């Protein structure tokens, strides 16, 4: 099994979390909350992920409603990806 298929399975595992975060944003908006919600993911082994461009596949629905930041916890929380440029 190559790295891309392993990574794809990890991304698929986040689909339910993506859906839950989108639901949370919608509930907060209905309650009058108008700030941008941010999800920060800290990876312990960033080497498992083939490159920055693939991080755009994490939480695709939530990225449209909020901000996603992915950090490398093993290297002093170095930012690997941030969707802030799209907001």
Indicate the overall shape. Answer: globular
Structural class of the secondary elements?
alpha+beta
> In total, how many beta strands?
3
Cα gyration radius (Å): 14 Å
What kind of sheet is the major sheet? 3 strands, mixed
The tally of structural domains comes to: 1
Tell me the fraction of residues in β-strands, as a range. Answer: 15-25%
SSE topology string: HHEHEE
- Strand order, sheet with most strands: 1-2-3
- Poorly predicted runs: none
If you average the pLDDT, what whole number results? 80
Q: Please count the helical segments.
A: 3
Span between termini: 36 Å
Helix content: 25-40%
Which structural traits does this protein have?
alpha+beta, about 20% strand, three-stranded mixed β-sheet
């Amino acid at each position: 099994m190559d790295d891309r298929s392993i990574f794809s399975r990890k991304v698929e595992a986040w689909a339910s979390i993506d859906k839950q975060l989108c639901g949370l944003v919608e509930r907060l908006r209905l309650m009058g909350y108008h700030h941008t919600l941010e999800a920060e993911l800290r990876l312990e082994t960033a080497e498992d992920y083939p490159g920055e461009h693939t991080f755009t596949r994490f939480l695709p629905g939530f990225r449209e409603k909020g901000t996603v930041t992915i950090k490398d916890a093993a290297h002093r929380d170095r930012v690997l990806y941030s969707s802030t440029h799209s907001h």
